[in-house]
Amino acid sequence: AEETASxxxxxxxxxxxxxxxxxxxLPEVTRNNVPYLQQSSGTPIYHALSELKGW
Length: 55
Known about the structure:
- This protein has one domain (about 1-55).
- The protein has two helices and no strands.
- It has helices at about 1-35, 45-55.
- The longest helix is centred in the middle third of the chain and has 36 residues, at about 1-35.
- It starts with a helix and ends with a helix.
- About 0% of the residues are buried.
């Protein structure tokens, strides 16, 4: 029973560390995508999304 509790604790620690890492990296990843989102409205993706707006 002790081994199972220890394993559960270790798994929880790994999960918590992963969550912290995601929280830390998310702003950086989002910031790096901003230029893509702000590019010219002449791009194909813009036209595709515009056509889907009323769909």
